[in-house]
């Protein structure tokens, strides 16, 4: 194709114009492919390179809508609009960043976040997106939505990013670029319910935003091959044809612009709507901007889809049903609410299914719902309760795509695992060893469940820090509470079981002010209050052990979003140190359980904690820390040491700079502490499924995985799993070894020599 251009005399073609021609040929060859999956996949990070300049001053060639979170119980409600130029999110709840990473959605492409209501569940995943975007070199992001959402950043305990988060003023009314126009539709809450004399009085502070989104028409592109066929020379005539003007060649032949252009790709419109409660309903259904999108108006047949963020109880109301029925019968309606299927992560299920082979009690299966609970049935309407990662392509061809939705076959997972070279043999050896170890039913408690074993930001395989310890049948404590903790509870226990656990939690400890250790706290507090409300009870007192900075964030949360009432008792970590901690007022509330915090070596005001239950057991949790003598002293002769091992041994220099620990350092700490058993956790996100696994001489060390549950009598089993795990994850472990660099080795050598 290119050779046809170089046949023109070189003197007639400037080098600049020649390069432009080559670019045009390249664009033509890319956009003329018929296969959508080859052409456009927002689930591939290479789709837009962070180092590649993207010309945004044109209409997008490719457009796709993706249901990232479908609003299932414990899951976020989030829809992403992705083009070949940029990405836009509608709401951004906890876990959105994790889901984007699992399915290779390019987070650095996301520059605009549209929020429907000033609720924590609509904003709680934003910090993850901000942190990730900063690593990609993104300098600025924009928020759109109700007044007050800009105060979200006030909840962050430290300046975690240099990225500028800009709130667009409501008075703008819309956002426009070369590809889309997104119009704001604010709906105000009525102070008085239906039936009241003053029912039309508006509540100025309660506003829900919906959005009318117009995808602009894509004009046909100049087809250079057709220009060559018609004999159009390089020069002004090409530019005229590109602008849509007909030209007459020197020979007198007329070349019509329509003959040398590809077909135009029509624009379309979709809506993102949110009617949070009945108090909004009258204003919502009577909104004039919506009427223009509905029958009998001519624009009704141009509405491709409506994404409903409204809750189930509102959708079931007669007025809402009538409102839906006013749309054209060919319009798709996607309902994002708690009745939807919750299967959102293939990686989690696959990992848990194969770990389940090692020990079905320690590695229990995840409880998630594969099929939706029907919400409603509208005759002659396309109503869908979408699974996560259902895609709706608008361009280059309109279609629904189900290829990225989670469809898990447990038998296939197991067969795939058993096909890994050497794994079946190691599994058989493990089973024979387990048979030789007598099982004890004594000491059922404590029960330790790892809900998050990663660091910084979550990955497909590991959530950020959280450990649930069941002290007995009616009291539990959370150690740290990273983003997505509530989702992890729901995944493991199911909706009913998660509410039971929330009602049992009597104490939460936050180790320090980094976001991967506390940003899930707000949702846990909200969910706990709701769990008691389901039982018709007032929440039992909850004891929070916090650094000062986290308490400040709780106060700000109460101002910006909502208060958690008077059922929370706050204790500062600094006041729980040393022997004073054991005699504190908190320990009088906790009965036989005694807590003591320990100042550790990480950021300022960072703590570990020691939990002691009479003479029966003693558990030490390090939080984030470099090797710390104070922790060793406080945890002496403990039953179980749970210690971070963020960075592998051959990156000792990096671990020292970031004030983290390596596995070998953890072993040394364990020996100095005389700990009976040790579990490593808080692994760097670079390791994805597994850290660098080692079998240590003293066989009392195990590695934590999300959803790993152990009792004290299970602890001797953990080291036995390592050979089978090394076989199971051999591909990932081999990848870790390949990434080891000479630079890191040199740094470690220099550090050790000091």
From TrEMBL:
Keywords: Endonuclease, Hydrolase, Metal-binding, Nuclease, tRNA processing, Zinc. The keyword Manganese does not apply. It catalyses: Endonucleolytic cleavage of RNA, removing extra 3' nucleotides from tRNA precursor, generating 3' termini of tRNAs. A 3'-hydroxy group is left at the tRNA terminus and a 5'-phosphoryl group is left at the trailer molecule. Its cofactor is Zn(2+). GO terms for biological process: mitochondrial tRNA 3'-end processing. InterPro entries: RibonucZ/Hydroxyglut_hydro, RNZ2-like, tRNase_Z_dom. It holds the Pfam family Anti-Pycsar_Apyc1. The keyword Hydrolase applies. Transmembrane segments: none annotated. GO terms for cellular component: mitochondrion. CDD domains: RNaseZ_ELAC1_ELAC2-C-term-like_MBL-fold. Residues 78-125 form the tRNase Z endonuclease domain. Its EC number is 3.1.26.11. One of its GO terms (molecular function) is 3'-tRNA processing endoribonuclease activity. Belongs to the RNase Z family. This is ribonuclease Z. It comes from Stegodyphus mimosarum (African social velvet spider). The lineage of its organism: Eukaryota, Metazoa, Ecdysozoa, Arthropoda, Chelicerata.
